Amino acid sequence: MKKEENFSKCLFDIVLYLIIIQAIFLGIKQITFHFIAEELFSRSMVTMVSMFIGIIFLWVYSKWRSSEFSVLPVKFGKVYIVATIFSMLFFVVTLFLIRGFSLQNMLMILYGGIVTPIFEELLFRGIIWNKLSCYIKREWKTYLLVTILFGLWHIGYAIGIYLWQGGSMLHCIFMKVLWGTLYGLFIGASELKQRTAI
């Protein structure tokens, strides 16, 4: 019974921390946009800086707690290497296919293609996965729970988009959670495969 109580507390703490992180991100945006114009680029840059600070915080937290921080696989298989090369090529090709090769476009791609995925991977497939693995024996159950949390994490993004653009909040939440969950299933599957191959 003690282990179940510890797991419940761990899960509660994780959900609470995720809510606090999203609330901080939303708060930073709301405060910032009292002083500067709120546009797609400025929203993206504020979020990118917040996530970069989040990456540093996650790194400090993992060192303080002596927990594993890396989400890189222990063994680099062919699929991982091919996916990495494909991602790099996609990043480079995108820079040349966009309408204008500018600093603004490069920063938007940096935000959406590098900073956000690194932050989310370190948070979900790094810290949260490792934390839940202490309580859940089967990796596939951890995979499903982390994927659900990852999908629900996107509610914070949806609220931010709604506050900025308006429209239907339920539609916005549904679409962000749906795509976040599908993406989480895909990325989490590669993490699951890598963890169970060891």
UniProtKB/TrEMBL annotation:
The keyword Flavoprotein does not apply. GO terms for molecular function: metallopeptidase activity. Keywords: Hydrolase, Membrane, Metalloprotease, Protease, Transmembrane, Transmembrane helix. Residues 105-183 form the CAAX prenyl protease 2/Lysostaphin resistance protein A-like domain. Signal peptide: none annotated. The chain crosses the membrane at residues 7-28, 40-60, 80-102, 108-128, 140-162, 168-189. This is CPBP family intramembrane metalloprotease. It comes from Blautia hominis.
